[in-house]
Request: fold
Amino acid sequence: MIALVAVNQAEGQKKEKMVTVTGSVSDTTLSPIHGALIVVDGQDTGVTTGKNGTFKLKVSTDALSIGAYTENFGSALTLIEGQNKITLVLDGSQAIKNFVPRWSEGDMDVEIGYGTAKKRNLTTDIGYIDAQDDSNASYTNIYDMMRGKVPGVQVTGNKITIRGINSINSGTDPLFVVDGIVVNSIDDISPRQVKSITVLKGSDAAIYGSRGAGGVIMITMVGANR
Reply:
């Protein structure tokens, strides 16, 4: 009996052995995705990618699969098969099915470039517009919908200026990003097609490098598969 218990304990300890896995998550252009949630065997690990799209965590030696999940860019999944370094590309070829993240109640996720983050973790006061709110239903012009909605954002005609505290880039035009793609203009976008608008400035816009020096206007369209 004692020998049997010892064997069972040894098997249990073996199953609980952990190994360190590192990796990276990127989009289809191989740009790093910040804030992607890492999923192991379909379970939320609570680990998210850093600003350079990388992650590091310990997994059981019995773990079979590892993946990354984002609300806006979709998900990706691959088999571990003894690998200690994983590369995940969110290209839609192999998505995580039937996965529901453990988001905290009342903790809003906002877009911050190549991924999402909790609003309370951002370094600046991020601007967010829920374009599907009933209060925005009457707008026919996207600039009119944005005017006066976000502190520090000045809308004059079709020109948008994002002003930060003591910002030396206060006169620089913002970068427009629609469903993850940089565009030159948002003139032709109807407010009825828009799901949400996120305004980034300062260090929170740094993921776009010098292009985001004047801030970033991120627009998510209704029905976007991202």
In short: The helical segments are 2-15, 142-146. The chain has two domains: 17-89, 109-221.
